[in-house]
Amino acid sequence: MMTDETVIHVDRLTKKFGDFIATNAISFDVVQGEIFGFLGANGAGKTTAMRMLCGLSIPSSGKATVAGFDVYKETEHIKQNIGYMSQKFSLYEDLTVKENIRFYAGIYGMSRSAIKEKMKVLLEQLELSAEENSLVKSLPLGWKQKLAFSVAILHEPRIVFLDEPTGGVDPVTRREFWNLIYEAAAKGITVFVTTHYMDEAEYCDRVSIMVDGVIEALDTPANLKKTYNASSMDEVFLQLARGAKRAAD
Amino acid sequence: MKKLLVILEKEFRQVFRNPAILRMVLVMPVIQLLVFPFAANYEVKNVSLSVVDHDHSSYSQKFINKISGSQYFKLVDYSPSYDKAMRTIESGEADLIVEIPAGFEKALVNENKSSMLIAVNAVNGVKANLGGAYAASIIRDFNAEIRTDWIQFPSFNPQPTINVTSSSWYNPTMNYKIFMVPAILVTLLTMIGSLMAALNIVHEKEIGTIEQINVSPITKVQFILGKLIPFWIMGLVTLTLGLLVSWLFYDIVPVGSLALIYVFGMVFLFTLLGVGLLMSTYAETQTQATFVSFFVMMLFMLLGGLYTPIESMPEWARWITKVNPVAYFIEVMRMIVLKGSTFADVRTDFFSVLGLGIFFNTWAVINYRKRS
């Protein structure tokens, strides 16, 4: 369910660490309900850009708004309106499935009755009802990732940021994970996702490719393939990323 | 407030699910309180004694009987010469030599005075000091005995004597355990409290969940309070256990008010946990946090008046104790438990610790950054 409303507006956003320019004056817009793929080699500056948009990192210069709020001054408002799932696994392993859901929903200020209702739907959807009282550490990685994603959008944020959400997950589970993403987008949640899997890039509405801190290309997967005269996103990526000078971290 | 409850619920669940933490809070303090007070013993007993008697007289024999009969000394060697006796000190066999010169008795009878030599192995300063002092006091005693032997009519005693009687207030039997146990309890609280608090936030940094907290609308104060309150409650549990152990095993019942101990304990824990949380906002890994908190704890304890009185520290060290919450609590615990001090007596200490607590906790909140 894509609309014309811009939910992320980025204008020459820059982050420097000393002399090193992690992201160099990047600009783009994302509209509501869009699945926006944020690609780039390791060390290209994707995570830095994403952390600035989530209010975790203060930009060095440039402008950006997320859900209509300024990334310099209104980060606490941004935080109420976004969901986030990091590369590092973000659930508490020593809490049960239910307890994790209750905690993360609770800190967004959801009422107990609303949490209860949502939890039931969520557990059924993920087919985790039987495991609701198991410790998260006992679940397989794929289930954990799907659960983490569902928890990240439980409070119905306007935008969800996913930082390499499917790392280390098998292809079947990845496919299931992307079904969850489509469902979220259909509900009007904007999905901002970084990934290294080029097949996943094909699933995105639009894709940006970062090289050495700069956005080199930004378009729909179909248009990108046409522009670079490539048969797959893999080729597009290789053509662009081969020119990278930064060593991968 | 509702969010704080959500955080607290989660923290408590994690604590109760972690048997190591429970053991730390419940079992360790009890064991340590049962063991430490016997080891942290200020009394020196069984000082090994080597005697060199060049006189072989009835008086020298009398003296040797007296000193070896005391509970503080143990006669381990009887050497013919000072050099031989010195060898027993070198080998570690003896701690102290008493040398009785030839003509000891003769001089005593004829000239009414005599002398002897005490040589102490001062490698262990405490043992040497006390051992020397005990020996000197036994000699003084011996001296007095001879006088009563000789002078039948004390009223004609040409030498004036001052009879000193001392009485020990608040701890009449000079039982060092009454003095040490409350202080050891404070150091236990210190170790457990600060280390747990220091490791906790760092653990969330290591496993990465702190990122998830930082992108949420939880405020810094809510987060820090959510960490502080559970450990604060556990600290009070430890304090209660400690007081129970001192009552059951050492028969120590605070002379002063139990409520005052708790009030002070609450403020002390607040301050201490603030220090721990502050350290954890700086540290990136649990290893770092452990090392830093060990360093800080060593300072707190050595400058806390547990082993050595603060009054005898140099000026600069005494200034450091002014910002040391442990020093205040050890002092106050001893005052309340032994003397029955009231709030009015410990008011200054109370507000000092409270002030330090506000200072450290505010610093921790400011330094805990949701953004970089």
What's the main sheet of chain A like? 6 strands, mixed
Number of domains of chain A: 1
Output the radius of gyration of chain B.
28 Å
CATH topology assignment of chain A: Rossmann fold
Distance from first to last alpha carbon of chain A: 37 Å
Largest sheet of chain B: 4 strands, mixed
The rough form of chain B would be described as elongated
Give the chain pair forming the largest contact, with residue counts: A-B, 29 and 25 residues
Strand content of chain A: 25-35%
Number of helices of chain B: 14
Helix content of chain B: 55-70%
Structure description:
- Chain A is an alpha/beta fold.
- Chain A has one domain (6-241): P-loop containing nucleotide triphosphate hydrolases (Rossmann fold, 3-Layer(aba) Sandwich).
- Chain A is built from nine helices and ten strands.
- The N and C termini of chain A lie far apart (37 Å).
- The relative contact order of chain A is 0.18.
- The model of chain A has no long low-confidence stretch (mean pLDDT 90).
- By secondary structure, chain B is of the alpha/beta class.
- Chain B has two domains: 2-40 and 173-367, no CATH class; 47-156, abc type-2 transporter like fold (3-Layer(aba) Sandwich).
- Chain B has 14 helices and four strands.
- Chain B has helices at residues 2-16, 19-39, 58-69, 82-90, 104-110, 125-150, 176-207, 209-214, 220-250, 258-282, 286-302, 315-321, 325-339, 343-367; strands spanning 47-53, 73-79, 96-100, 117-120.
- Chain B has a four-stranded mixed β-sheet, with helices on both faces.
- In chain B, helix 3 links the parallel strand 1 and strand 2 (73-79).
- The two termini of chain B are 26 Å apart.
